[in-house]
């Protein structure tokens, strides 16, 4: 076979292969584009239409980034706290909330606490004296 | 030997399918296939109601212009060797038939 004709044949075969590949690619994307415009017969909605706006996922739900995370007011201190940090903040927000976390905080009246401590010491002393 | 005849013989022998798979594999490996898919996606995004023929022509033009040259050389080599093997086999069969 003549080298020039072999080169020419190879080029035309490669061209044919490339055309087939591009044709398949175009079919795939054109089909998905057309289907996204049509209403789904099962759910009667455009479920094949995907959102491509920035800041949203393909189902049009907002993507939470550090700049888009919601903020809530702390009921105790009134500060604006990010939703992801709210639980941790509430744990540390002591004495300024209505919720009770420990026995020491429960007795807010100091005189009562002192009486209790004095009573404990007296009891301990009495026990040591008796032995 | 005409191009059409060669292509027909390649189809019949199954070599065309094999070459197509080799091409697809190489295109995926070098990342060019991903670039073409992104380009197709951008064309669809620009005009969701684009006609198939327009889309195909734009993609083919971009593919022809940006086809990797190294891959072109390797594919041409592969195709040449396949055609030569095919013609050798055909020649051998013809000789056997004459004898």
Automatic annotation (TrEMBL), chain A:
InterPro entries for the chain: SAGA_su_Sgf11
Keywords of this entry: Activator, Chromatin regulator, Metal-binding, Nucleus, Transcription, Transcription regulation, Zinc, Zinc-finger
Gene Ontology cellular-component terms listed: DUBm complex; SAGA complex
Zn finger limits (SGF11-type): 72-93
Protein name, entry field: SAGA-associated factor 11
GO biological process: chromatin organization
Domain-related comment: The long N-terminal helix forms part of the 'assembly lobe' of the SAGA deubiquitination module.
The keyword Nucleus is assigned to this record: yes
Gene name of the encoded protein: sgf11
TrEMBL record, chain B:
GO biological process, one term: mRNA export from nucleus
GO cellular component, one term: SAGA complex
Name of the protein in question: SAGA complex subunit Sus1
UniProt-recorded Gene Ontology molecular function terms: transcription coactivator activity
């Amino acid at each position: 076979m003549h080298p020039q004709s072999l080169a020419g044949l190879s080029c035309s075969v490669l061209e044919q292969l490339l055309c087939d590949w591009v044709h398949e690619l175009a079919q795939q994307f054109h089909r998905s584009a057309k289907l996204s415009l049509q209403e789904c017969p099962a759910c009667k909605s455009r479920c094949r239409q995907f959102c491509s706006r920035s800041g949203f996922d393909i189902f049009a739900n907002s993507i939470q980034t550090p700049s888009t995370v919601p903020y809530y007011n702390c009921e105790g201190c009134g500060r604006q706290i990010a939703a992801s940090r709210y639980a941790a903040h509430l744990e540390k927000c002591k004495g300024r909330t209505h919720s009770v976390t420990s026995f020491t905080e429960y007795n807010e009246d100091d005189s009562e606490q002192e009486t209790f401590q004095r009573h404990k010491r007296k009891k301990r002393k009495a026990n040591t004296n008796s032995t | 030997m005409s191009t059409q005849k060669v292509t027909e013989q390649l189809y019949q022998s199954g070599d065309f399918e094999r070459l197509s798979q080799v091409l697809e594999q190489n295109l995926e490996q070098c990342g060019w296939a991903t670039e073409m898919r992104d380009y197709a996606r951008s064309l669809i995004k620009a005009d969701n109601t684009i006609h198939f023929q327009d889309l195909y022509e734009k993609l083919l033009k971009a593919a022809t212009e940006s086809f990797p040259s190294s891959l072109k050389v390797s594919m041409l080599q592969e195709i040449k060797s396949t055609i030569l093997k095919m013609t050798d086999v055909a020649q051998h069969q013809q000789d056997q038939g004459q004898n």
